[in-house]
Fold this protein.
Amino acid sequence: MQIPPKKDLKAYFFDAFASRPRPLDTQILAPLPRVQYEHKKLGQFLAGTTPRELTAEEMRYEIGGDLVVLTSEAFRYFLPAFLSASINSYQSADFFVDVLIGTLTKPSRPDIVESYDYLAQRSPGLLDEMLELLREQQLEYFDSGEQLAQFHERFDSLTVEEGKAVLAFLVTLKEYYNKDFPFGELDKAIDRHWIRYETS
Protein backbone atom coordinates (compact mmCIF):
# COMPACT_ATOMS: atom_id res chain seq x y z
CA MET A 1 0.00 0.00 0.00
CA GLN A 2 1.39 3.37 -1.06
CA ILE A 3 0.91 6.10 1.55
CA PRO A 4 1.00 9.70 0.31
CA PRO A 5 3.51 12.16 1.80
CA LYS A 6 2.34 13.87 4.96
CA LYS A 7 1.71 17.15 3.13
CA ASP A 8 -0.74 15.41 0.77
CA LEU A 9 -2.70 13.47 3.39
CA LYS A 10 -5.45 16.06 3.92
CA ALA A 11 -6.53 15.83 0.30
CA TYR A 12 -6.16 12.05 0.41
CA PHE A 13 -8.44 11.75 3.45
CA PHE A 14 -11.12 14.04 2.05
CA ASP A 15 -11.05 12.38 -1.36
CA ALA A 16 -11.46 8.95 0.25
CA PHE A 17 -14.59 10.03 2.14
CA ALA A 18 -15.98 12.38 -0.52
CA SER A 19 -19.07 10.26 -1.14
CA ARG A 20 -20.21 10.32 2.49
CA PRO A 21 -23.46 12.30 2.73
CA ARG A 22 -24.03 14.95 5.34
CA PRO A 23 -26.35 13.61 8.05
CA LEU A 24 -29.49 15.49 8.94
CA ASP A 25 -29.20 17.74 11.99
CA THR A 26 -31.33 15.22 13.87
CA GLN A 27 -28.93 12.40 12.93
CA ILE A 28 -25.72 13.84 14.41
CA LEU A 29 -26.11 12.66 17.99
CA ALA A 30 -26.96 9.14 19.07
CA PRO A 31 -30.39 8.61 20.64
CA LEU A 32 -30.84 8.80 24.38
CA PRO A 33 -29.76 7.49 26.89
CA ARG A 34 -26.20 7.72 25.53
CA VAL A 35 -26.60 11.42 24.89
CA GLN A 36 -27.01 13.62 27.94
CA TYR A 37 -28.33 17.16 28.10
CA GLU A 38 -24.84 18.71 27.98
CA HIS A 39 -24.17 17.03 24.63
CA LYS A 40 -26.92 19.00 22.90
CA LYS A 41 -24.49 21.91 22.48
CA LEU A 42 -22.15 19.60 20.56
CA GLY A 43 -24.98 18.56 18.24
CA GLN A 44 -25.84 22.18 17.55
CA PHE A 45 -22.19 23.03 16.91
CA LEU A 46 -21.64 20.20 14.42
CA ALA A 47 -24.93 20.97 12.69
CA GLY A 48 -23.52 24.40 11.89
CA THR A 49 -20.17 23.37 10.46
CA THR A 50 -18.61 21.14 7.80
CA PRO A 51 -15.61 18.80 7.92
CA ARG A 52 -13.46 21.25 5.95
CA GLU A 53 -14.32 24.08 8.35
CA LEU A 54 -13.64 22.08 11.52
CA THR A 55 -10.38 23.06 13.23
CA ALA A 56 -8.11 21.08 15.54
CA GLU A 57 -8.90 23.49 18.39
CA GLU A 58 -12.63 22.89 17.91
CA MET A 59 -12.08 19.15 17.97
CA ARG A 60 -10.17 19.54 21.20
CA TYR A 61 -12.53 21.92 23.00
CA GLU A 62 -15.94 21.38 21.38
CA ILE A 63 -15.81 17.60 20.82
CA GLY A 64 -13.14 16.49 23.25
CA GLY A 65 -13.85 13.02 24.55
CA ASP A 66 -17.41 12.89 23.25
CA LEU A 67 -16.90 10.99 19.98
CA VAL A 68 -18.93 8.18 21.52
CA VAL A 69 -22.14 10.22 21.30
CA LEU A 70 -21.90 10.77 17.53
CA THR A 71 -24.00 8.56 15.33
CA SER A 72 -22.13 6.32 12.92
CA GLU A 73 -23.28 8.52 10.03
CA ALA A 74 -21.97 11.70 11.68
CA PHE A 75 -18.73 10.05 12.73
CA ARG A 76 -17.98 8.85 9.19
CA TYR A 77 -18.95 12.22 7.71
CA PHE A 78 -16.53 14.14 9.95
CA LEU A 79 -13.85 11.44 10.02
CA PRO A 80 -11.63 12.93 7.25
CA ALA A 81 -11.44 16.15 9.28
CA PHE A 82 -10.54 14.19 12.41
CA LEU A 83 -7.80 12.32 10.56
CA SER A 84 -6.39 15.38 8.86
CA ALA A 85 -6.26 17.63 11.93
CA SER A 86 -4.77 14.89 14.10
CA ILE A 87 -1.87 14.59 11.65
CA ASN A 88 -1.37 18.17 10.48
CA SER A 89 -2.24 19.95 13.74
CA TYR A 90 -1.10 17.26 16.14
CA GLN A 91 -0.11 19.57 18.99
CA SER A 92 -3.28 21.65 18.74
CA ALA A 93 -5.55 18.61 18.66
CA ASP A 94 -3.84 17.39 21.84
CA PHE A 95 -5.78 14.69 23.74
CA PHE A 96 -8.38 14.47 20.96
CA VAL A 97 -5.84 12.35 19.06
CA ASP A 98 -5.84 9.82 21.91
CA VAL A 99 -9.63 9.74 21.91
CA LEU A 100 -9.67 9.18 18.14
CA ILE A 101 -7.14 6.34 18.33
CA GLY A 102 -9.20 4.71 21.04
CA THR A 103 -12.27 4.98 18.84
CA LEU A 104 -10.38 3.41 15.91
CA THR A 105 -9.22 0.50 18.07
CA LYS A 106 -11.36 -2.63 18.17
CA PRO A 107 -12.35 -3.09 21.83
CA SER A 108 -10.80 -5.91 23.81
CA ARG A 109 -11.64 -7.24 27.28
CA PRO A 110 -7.97 -7.70 28.28
CA ASP A 111 -7.40 -3.98 27.62
CA ILE A 112 -9.79 -3.14 30.46
CA VAL A 113 -8.09 -5.52 32.85
CA GLU A 114 -4.63 -4.25 31.93
CA SER A 115 -5.62 -0.59 32.22
CA TYR A 116 -7.00 -1.03 35.73
CA ASP A 117 -4.02 -3.12 36.81
CA TYR A 118 -1.78 -0.30 35.59
CA LEU A 119 -3.93 2.31 37.34
CA ALA A 120 -3.74 0.37 40.60
CA GLN A 121 0.06 0.29 40.38
CA ARG A 122 0.45 3.97 39.47
CA SER A 123 -2.24 5.38 41.82
CA PRO A 124 -1.85 3.65 45.19
CA GLY A 125 -3.91 6.39 46.82
CA LEU A 126 -7.08 5.20 45.13
CA LEU A 127 -9.17 2.85 47.21
CA ASP A 128 -8.98 -0.77 46.10
CA GLU A 129 -12.75 -0.99 46.43
CA MET A 130 -13.24 1.98 44.13
CA LEU A 131 -10.91 0.59 41.48
CA GLU A 132 -12.55 -2.80 41.64
CA LEU A 133 -16.00 -1.24 41.27
CA LEU A 134 -14.87 0.76 38.23
CA ARG A 135 -13.22 -2.31 36.73
CA GLU A 136 -16.36 -4.38 37.15
CA GLN A 137 -18.53 -1.65 35.63
CA GLN A 138 -16.27 -1.40 32.58
CA LEU A 139 -16.12 -5.18 32.17
CA GLU A 140 -19.89 -5.40 32.47
CA TYR A 141 -20.25 -2.71 29.83
CA PHE A 142 -17.87 -4.57 27.51
CA ASP A 143 -19.67 -7.86 28.09
CA SER A 144 -22.95 -6.21 27.10
CA GLY A 145 -21.58 -6.12 23.54
CA GLU A 146 -22.39 -2.45 23.01
CA GLN A 147 -18.78 -1.37 22.47
CA LEU A 148 -18.09 -4.00 19.83
CA ALA A 149 -21.44 -3.36 18.19
CA GLN A 150 -20.68 0.35 17.90
CA PHE A 151 -17.23 -0.36 16.44
CA HIS A 152 -18.67 -2.64 13.76
CA GLU A 153 -21.56 -0.27 13.07
CA ARG A 154 -19.13 2.56 12.41
CA PHE A 155 -16.51 0.74 10.38
CA ASP A 156 -17.86 -2.41 8.72
CA SER A 157 -19.45 -0.38 5.93
CA LEU A 158 -16.32 1.56 5.00
CA THR A 159 -15.18 1.27 1.42
CA VAL A 160 -11.73 -0.07 0.64
CA GLU A 161 -10.48 3.46 -0.07
CA GLU A 162 -11.85 4.73 3.24
CA GLY A 163 -10.24 1.85 5.11
CA LYS A 164 -6.93 2.56 3.41
CA ALA A 165 -7.19 6.19 4.48
CA VAL A 166 -7.60 5.20 8.12
CA LEU A 167 -4.66 2.81 7.86
CA ALA A 168 -2.55 5.55 6.27
CA PHE A 169 -3.46 7.83 9.18
CA LEU A 170 -2.37 5.28 11.79
CA VAL A 171 0.84 4.38 9.95
CA THR A 172 1.76 8.06 9.56
CA LEU A 173 1.08 8.74 13.22
CA LYS A 174 3.34 5.84 14.07
CA GLU A 175 6.07 7.20 11.81
CA TYR A 176 6.04 10.70 13.31
CA TYR A 177 4.69 10.37 16.86
CA ASN A 178 5.12 6.76 17.98
CA LYS A 179 7.11 7.85 21.04
CA ASP A 180 3.93 9.45 22.41
CA PHE A 181 2.22 6.04 22.49
CA PRO A 182 4.48 3.89 24.69
CA PHE A 183 1.92 1.15 25.27
CA GLY A 184 1.61 0.12 21.64
CA GLU A 185 -1.71 1.87 21.10
CA LEU A 186 -1.10 2.43 17.39
CA ASP A 187 -0.01 -1.16 16.79
CA LYS A 188 -3.13 -2.42 18.58
CA ALA A 189 -5.38 -0.30 16.38
CA ILE A 190 -3.61 -1.43 13.21
CA ASP A 191 -3.25 -5.11 14.02
CA ARG A 192 -6.76 -5.68 15.31
CA HIS A 193 -8.60 -4.28 12.32
CA TRP A 194 -6.96 -1.88 9.87
CA ILE A 195 -4.10 -4.09 8.69
CA ARG A 196 -6.60 -5.85 6.42
CA TYR A 197 -6.47 -2.83 4.10
CA GLU A 198 -2.71 -3.08 3.55
CA THR A 199 -3.08 -5.36 0.53
CA SER A 200 -6.62 -4.43 -0.53
About this structure: The radius of gyration is 17 Å.
